[in-house]
Design goal:
The protein is mostly helical and 178 residues long. It is globular. The protein starts with a helix and ends with a helix.
Length: 178
């Protein structure tokens, strides 16, 4: 996995969420974004749909069950523990500059306009946050729901490719097919 981190600038989702402490130590200038749902039950419903359509050994290793349905409490416990451990880890570092927490589906709760949310994210990433850049970015993606972007044909193809690509990477890293 370390060799992959030397080739790219950003990583998301699993298995990277499992090794954030190692990555933070290996890359002391790296920044981390913890994304959560406004309501953890929304996350649970989403992961139930996800695990129903995509079989992956990692779900068993991480949550104790291949499918979220029937294992709801275990999945919620892991979700809560992960958020807590990430916060505690970066709080212990003390400088408060390496972790940004963003709540998906949290437009109402965040009570920020689109530009302000982009500005926070861009500044956290040490990127230009001018009005021109914000305008070019458009609406902030408050949700990661498939329905929000799958209407575009190119996104359908990209999503299919990405799913297959990640499956094979995860299988190679975790030996899921063996």
């Amino acid at each position: 996995m370390i060799s992959l981190t030397q080739q790219y600038d950003a990583f998301e989702d699993l298995p990277w969420a499992l090794v954030y402490q190692d990555m933070a130590s290996l890359y002391p200038d790296a920044k981390f974004i913890l994304t959560l749902r406004e309501n953890e039950m929304d996350w649970l419903e989403s992961i139930k749909v996800h695990t129903a359509r995509r079989k992956w050994i990692g779900h068993s290793l991480i949550y104790g069950g291949m499918r979220a349905k029937g294992n709801e409490q275990a999945y919620l416990d892991v979700y809560r523990e992960h958020a807590s451990s990430v916060r505690e880890f970066f709080e212990a570092e003390g400088d408060g500059t390496r972790l940004l927490e963003i709540t998906l589906d949290g437009k109402k709760r965040e009570n920020k306009d689109e530009g302000e949310t982009w500005r926070i994210l861009l500044k956290f990433l040490d990127m230009e946050a001018s009005d021109e850049v914000i305008k070019e970015l458009g609406d902030f993606p408050w949700s990661n729901r498939t329905a929000d972007f799958m209407g575009l044909e190119i996104m359908k193809n990209l999503a299919w490719f990405w799913d297959r690509f990640m499956f094979y990477i995860e299988e190679a890293l975790l030996g899921a097919g063996k």
